[in-house]
Design a protein that fits this description.
The protein is of the alpha/beta class. The protein is 34% helix and 21% strand. The strands form two sheets. The chain has a six-stranded mixed sheet, sandwiched between helices. Helix 1 (30-42) links the parallel strand 2 (14-20) and strand 3. The longest helix has 15 residues, at 102-116. It is globular and about 45 Å long. The N and C termini lie far apart (32 Å).
């Protein structure tokens, strides 16, 4: 049965948070703060946090810097995953993936459907792995960030979650054939 195995030790991970927005600042960034609060409450460490405008090159550069930083295990963005012309987060990070994690976006939209109905088709939430770093792009709404963390990430980023979790895979992410 799925769940936390309390007989195992928790292994915290280092997380970087990016808010993609043309208007938000640290003072009013509720979505980014929600992710920070939930990750730290779970026992993880926030090693960096940034806010960038909806600019494909700058978003890609920030994710690339985190991928190159051995202190970052997981990079999570909020914002820029919609359908408007300014929404470019998936276009910025998907080329960085060594491997996509299609199940993340599928599961997020399935869970979201229960709350927002067919409006979930407007979400392009995505995830992948780049040189051993997990990358997640979430919608910009605070509610979507809560749902993604509470229903998916808190479990998959917990080394005690069974039957399996993303953290147990970290030592093998860069294996070659």
């Amino acid at each position: 049965m799925a769940g936390i195995d309390e007989t195992l030790s928790f292994r915290p991970v280092n997380i970087a948070i990016l808010t993609v927005s043309d208007t938000r600042t640290l003072a009013d960034d509720r979505s980014g703060q929600t992710l920070v609060d939930r990750a730290t409450a779970a026992g993880h460490t926030i090693v960096d946090r940034a806010i960038l405008p909806d600019d494909r090159d700058r978003i890609a550069a920030q994710f690339s810097a985190w991928i190159d930083n051995p202190a970052v295990n997981v990079a999570i963005s909020t914002g820029g995953t919609g359908l408007t012309g300014r929404d470019v987060t998936p276009e910025a990070i998907e080329p960085l993936y060594d491997k996509p994690i299609p199940g993340f976006g599928e599961l997020f939209r399935s869970l979201s459907y229960q709350k927002v109905g067919t409006s979930t088709v407007q979400s392009r939430a995505t995830a992948g792995i780049a040189r051993g770093t997990y990358l997640f792009a979430l919608p910009g709404s605070t509610s979507a960030c809560k749902d993604a963390w509470d229903d998916i990430l808190q479990y998959q980023l917990d080394s005690r979650y069974r039957p399996c979790n993303l953290i147990d895979l970290v030592p093998r992410l860069q294996e070659q054939r």
